[in-house]
Write a structure and sequence with these properties.
This protein is an alpha+beta fold and 130 residues long. It contains 2 helices and 6 strands, in the order βββαβαββ.
Length: 130
Amino acid sequence: MTKEVVFTLDAVPPLTTFSQAIISKGFVYVSGNIGCTSEFMIVEGGVQGQTIAALENMDKILKAAGSGLQHVVKVNVYLTNLTRDFSDMNSVYISFFEENAMPARTCIGVASLPLGASVEIECVAELPDA
């Protein structure tokens, strides 16, 4: 089994304990992204601002891997306050994907996230030329 590490300077740098993404068997597995800057500061704008930042970062990583948001097949979303933030996160989330081709998704409420983030998003995407 061969796997390839994905790294791009355009995205938030990963910590030493994980990669931005891994390519394996025609798919890109993108690590969880929170809404932070490259200096690991949570962005302003609450869960909506963080969702935008996380998805924009995820898109940069996917593009570096030779894929893109249009090739995402599965998304996992983690929210620290599911009741309060689910609707606001969704209102931003839907603008990043094609209306009639939304990826499969799971959304989970969690106790906490790194750096005090409100949302973390990870995905699996196809490599179009694999």
